[in-house]
Amino acid sequence: METLLAFLVLIGVVVWFHELGHFLFAKLFGVKVEIFSIGFGPVLVSKKLGETEYRISAIPLGGFVKLYGEEDNLDDPRAFSSKKNYQKILIASGGPLFNFILAILLFAFIFSVGKPTPSYVLEKPLVGHVVENSPAQKLGLKEGDLLLEINGKKVSTWKEFENAVLESVLKKNWNVVVLRDGQVLQLSGTVELSRAHSFGVEPYIKPVIGKVLPKSPAEQVGIKEGDEILEINGKKVKSWYDAVVLIRSTKGEIIKLKIKRDGQILEKHVIPMVDKRTGIPILGVSPRIEIISVKEPLGEAVLEAFRKTWDLTVLSIKALWALITGGLSLKTLGGPIAIAQLAGESAQQGLIAFLGMMAFISVQLAVFNLIPLPVLDGGLILLFLIESIRRRPLSQKFKENWQKVGFAIIIALSAFVILNDIVRLITSGGV
Predict the structure, then answer these.
(1) Within this chain, do residues 55 and 17 fall inside the same structural domain, yes or no?
(2) Helices and strands, counts by H and E, the chain
(3) Final residue before a domain boundary, out of 182, 203, 224
(4) 17 and 105 share one domain
(5) Would you call 267 a catalytic residue per the annotation?
(6) Are residues 140 and 49 in the same domain?
(7) Do 18 and 68 fall into the same domain?
(8) Residue 309 domain-assigned?
């Protein structure tokens, strides 16, 4: 229920802002707006104010603004069809533009109030763990490496490292410079990332327990927050990842823990709970990670918001091009189910995380709508540009066929991403 509510709020705000852009530009040029709808299909709520009917409809996967004279060639000065092509282009561009504006406003708010962030993001990028079979492992990174450069970009903190990886997420040929045992090494290779966090390196995290889940195996044997794990089944533990690997290697058998609490050494014997879906042994504990809030002055927050929105836009365009050219698998596409999952997960993490996800989706919607396909805003802009070059309107028959092709493409794409979502859920065990 929480996931559904988060999805409806996220999509509702993003779509409302998009349609508001079309609405305000139409009003600016004196076009009569007949309907302003959030959602499609059966109308749930309707209210007419002035000359515009405002609706909330049953299918919350988009919205629309119906303009007077949009489908007919009318000479009425209040008709969309009577406007100059540059005005039509601006009206069509209003939706994506407002999605970019929404993203900038949200990011500016996040940066100004301070986003809860692990303190290690401001520390040196010293590798504490390399994920097995990850791109990082394939490149040859090892625990203890100090990251110096990612594809030519110097990094001195984990935050800079994450930004450098995000900028390179679509690259295939990677070059990473590290400091290992006093020597500077260059590690090169061909790897593919689908997301920035899938590179496969993690910072060093002390094996200190930060949270114990209620009624978990750990709580039942008296393990407490602040306990430091020293040994597991006689093997020394240097980091949290050592503890994770050793616990998982037990395959659900009894675990002998040596812990340190208030200067005293204690031993605990615990039988882990085994996750039925994954078969992974679980104690019900999480590491202690210091959380800080990094606030920016308003001016810097706004500039950072512009940079963040620009970087996401460029990355989205690169991803689209990679999908077209075959450099990125179509299986990476996500539909409404994937968005709902992301909305729910971000909402559980708090307001700031949820607003960050909303900004991200707003940028994706803006970029997607600017694709020059029929039905989308980009398709309309393309038609008006062609008419401007030709200096005469395109035939009505061409426009009708253009719309039909557009609907066919959008329906096929929608069906594909929804099916992709379902397959991803089933194969990942999410249902």
Answers:
(1) yes
(2) 11, 18
(3) 203
(4) yes
(5) no
(6) no
(7) yes
(8) no
What pLDDT, on the 0 to 100 scale, is given for residue 428?
Answer: 47
Strand ranges, E, within 104-248 = 115-118, 127-130, 146-150, 153-154, 173-180, 183-190, 201-203, 209-212, 228-232, 235-236
- Report the number of distinct structural domains present in the chain: 3
Distance in angstroms (rounded) separating the CA atoms of residues 141 and 186? 10
- The per-residue DSSP string of 333-390 comes to ---HHHHHHHHHHHHHH-HHHHHHHHHHHHHHHHHHHTS--TTSHHHHHHHHHHHHHH
CATH number for 194 = 2.30.42.10
Q: What is the pTM of this model?
A: 0.72
Do the Cβ atoms of 128 and 206 come closer than 8 Å? no
- Which residue among 255, 287, 319 closes a domain? 287
125: its two tokens: 């990028």
Biggest CA pair distance of the chain: 87
Find out whether 369 and 378 touch, Cβ atoms under 8 Å.
Answer: yes
Res. 358: pLDDT tops 80: yes
Cα 16 from Cα 37, distance rounded (Å)? 8
- 150 within 8 A of 161, measured Cβ to Cβ: yes
In a domain, 140, yes or no: yes
Q: Indicate the helix (H) or strand (E) that contains 104.
A: helix 85-113
What single-letter DSSP state applies at residue 208?
Answer: B
293 part of a folded domain: no
Q: What is the C-alpha to C-alpha distance for residues 242 and 208, in angstroms, rounded to an integer?
A: 12
Q: Do 199 and 217 have their domain in common? A: no
Domain that holds residue 28: 2-113+353-428
| pLDDT one-digit tens code per residue, 48-93 | 998 999 998 888 778 889 999 887 777 788 988 888 889 999 999 9
Give the residue from 368, 313, 380, 366 showing the smallest Cα distance to 95: 366
- According to DSSP, the β-strands at 235-236 and 264-270 are unpaired
Whether 271 and 217 have beta carbons less than 8 Å apart is answered as yes
Instruction: Enter the tokens of residue 20.
Output: 């508001």
Do residues 10 and 63 both lie within one domain? yes
Q: Are 295 and 113 contacting, i.e. CB atoms less than 8 angstroms apart?
A: yes
Instruction: Measure the CA–CA gap between 72 and 77, rounded to whole angstroms.
Output: 13
CB count within 10 Å of CB 411 equals: 11
Residues 172 and 106 in one domain: no
Same domain, 92 and 31: yes
Q: What is the pLDDT of residues 153-209, one digit of tens each?
A: 999 999 889 888 877 777 778 999 999 999 999 999 888 775 545 788 889 888 999
Contact between 207 and 238 under an 8 Å Cβ cutoff? The reply is: yes
Is 340 within the bounds of a domain? no
| Structure tokens belonging to residue 39 | 């959602």
> Which of 2, 19, 71, 300 is labelled catalytic?
19
